[in-house]
């Protein structure tokens, strides 16, 4: 959805609508998001080592919370075929026949590079609503009689190939290519693909569009968080929500904790120390700057259906996003750290020109205060940088802004109205968006 505005020459220009959400959040001694070596993730910013929460980490947990709040689901999985098989077996299909039929449907989409994995699923992750999996099963069930001879032919071809390989067992070249690597396309994919050509031929009962329509299915979750399927642009959905890697506002050092797992029985017997395991874990504590932005125009474009329904769905999705941003997260080492803190500051800005990330406030790391903390200085730094940004860009495209804070002893003059609760913060932000849309 776009709204016209006018340039200095009087020419009509498109106008976008963005919601920026910024948070300052202090986390305790923890290891919420770890790298491949088991250390808390970090990044250099302003030539200083910072604690980091990756955007993928944040988006995954946030999406789970949004789904729960909306009562919607979308699965990012390689097991789409396996879930459809469960549906079909419930309708009386033989599991192997159901698997073959669904796999044929996937191959019938003719998406280059999309094939069947050894476990029966797809070789690539598909991001689909549950309804799409049901539709895949429906399509197979609708053409059950048509599939039957092709399923039999595919199984016969696979049996012959298995018998052939058994007879030539011991010849390594039969199972590997010239580089000694197993060929990418499995025998099963090849056998099924041969039958799929007959199914989708001119006189066949299916076309690739039947399956592509299902792969292109979307709901509010897909519309908000986006989807990419290589070589199938019709299934690609540009994410309406963008999330930056969260960075600590200050320099950090990683701390090493040595720990012992006690063997209860050995200890009770009084043998040695009772230690069943000795190990080390790395942790840090940090005050994070977190930033996300919602392209409201893109979200509306991504949502199918009549305009009023799309607007209502977009509004519900944005409300869930705002609430999910401070929901508890099932993070790494959660049992031993319980890092369930609330943001000390949440700031929402609705803009009609562009998203604006205020991370530049912390390019120079915040020094610890005399009492040893970073929160007070971090929030003051953000407030000052927001003021500088408003001066730089002007306020004509700032449709509204407001903040929510745990800091009763601080005033933030550049962060809009101060609100008292999360409910009020959400309601005010949504009302600002409604007004900006006209």
Element layout with pairings:
Layout: E1 3-6, E2 12-15, E3 18-30, E4 42-45, E5 48-53, H1 55-70, E6 75-77, H2 80-89, H3 95-108, E7 126-128, H4 130-142, H5 144-167, H6 187-199, H7 208-215, H8 220-225, E8 241-243, E9 246-248, E10 255-262, H9 264-268, E11 275-295, H10 296-302, H11 307-324, H12 334-337, E12 345-351, H13 375-393, E13 398-405, E14 417-419, H14 422-437
Parallel strand pairs: 13-14
Antiparallel strand pairs: 1-2, 3-11, 3-12, 4-5, 5-9, 6-7, 8-11, 9-11, 10-11, 12-13
Summarize the structure.
The protein has 438 residues and is of the alpha+beta class. The chain is built from 14 helices and 14 strands.
According to DSSP, the number of beta strands is 14
Count of alpha and pi helical runs: 14
Largest sheet, if any? 10 strands, mixed
Order of helices and strands: EEEEEHEHHEHHHHHEEEHEHHHEHEEH
- Round the Cα radius of gyration to an integer and report it: 27 Å
* Shape descriptor: globular
Terminal CA distance: 11 Å
Mean pLDDT: 90
Strand residue percentage: 15-25%
Residue ranges: pLDDT <50 for 5 or more in a row? 1-14, 173-184
Number of domains: 2
Report the structural category: alpha+beta
Helix fraction bin: 25-40%
């Amino acid at each position: 959805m776009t709204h016209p505005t006018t340039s200095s020459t009087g020419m009509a220009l498109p106008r976008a609508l963005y919601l920026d959400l910024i948070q300052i959040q202090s986390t305790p001694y923890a290891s919420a998001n770890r790298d491949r070596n088991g250390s808390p993730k970090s990044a250099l910013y302003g030539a200083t080592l910072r604690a980091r929460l990756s955007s993928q980490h944040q988006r995954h947990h946030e999406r789970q919370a949004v789904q729960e709040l909306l009562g919607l689901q979308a699965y990012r999985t390689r097991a789409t075929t396996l879930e459809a098989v469960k549906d079909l077996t419930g309708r009386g299909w033989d599991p192997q026949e159901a698997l073959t039929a669904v796999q044929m449907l996937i191959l019938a989409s003719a998406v280059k590079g999309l094939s069947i994995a050894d476990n029966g699923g797809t070789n690539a992750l598909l991001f689909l609503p549950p309804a799409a999996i049901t539709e895949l099963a429906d399509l197979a069930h609708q053409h059950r009689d048509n599939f039957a001879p092709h399923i039999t032919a595919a199984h016969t071809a696979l049996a012959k190939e298995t018998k052939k390989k058994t007879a030539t067992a011991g010849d390594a070249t039969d199972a590997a290519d010239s580089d000694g690597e197993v060929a990418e396309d499995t025998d099963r994919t090849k056998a099924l693909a041969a039958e799929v050509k007959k199914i989708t031929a001119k006189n066949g009962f299916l076309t690739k569009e039947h399956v592509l329509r299902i792969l292109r299915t979307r709901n509010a979750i897909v519309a908000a968080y986006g989807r990419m399927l290589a070589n199938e642009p019709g299934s690609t959905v540009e994410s309406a929500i963008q999330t930056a890697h969260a960075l600590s506002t200050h320099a950090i050092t990683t701390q090493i904790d040595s720990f012992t797992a006690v063997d209860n029985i050995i200890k009770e017997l009084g043998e040695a120390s009772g230690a069943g395991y000795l190990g080390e874990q790395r942790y840090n504590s940090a005050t994070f700057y977190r930033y996300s932005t919602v392209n409201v125009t893109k979200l509306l474009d991504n949502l199918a259906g009549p305009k009023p329904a799309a607007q209502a769905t977009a509004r519900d999705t944005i409300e869930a996003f705002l609430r999910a941003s401070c929901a508890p997260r099932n993070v790494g080492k959660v049992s031993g750290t319980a890092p369930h803190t609330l943001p000390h500051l949440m700031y929402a800005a609705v803009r009609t020109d562009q998203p604006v990330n205020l991370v530049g406030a912390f390019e120079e790391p915040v020094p610890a205060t005399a009492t040893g903390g970073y929160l007070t200085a971090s929030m003051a730094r953000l407030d000052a940088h927001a003021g500088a940004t408003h001066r730089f860009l002007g306020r004509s495209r700032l449709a509204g802004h407001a903040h929510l804070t745990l800091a009763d002893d601080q005033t933030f003059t550049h962060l809009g109205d101060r609100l008292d609760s999360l409910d009020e913060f959400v309601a005010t932000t949504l009302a600002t968006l409604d007004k900006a849309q006209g």
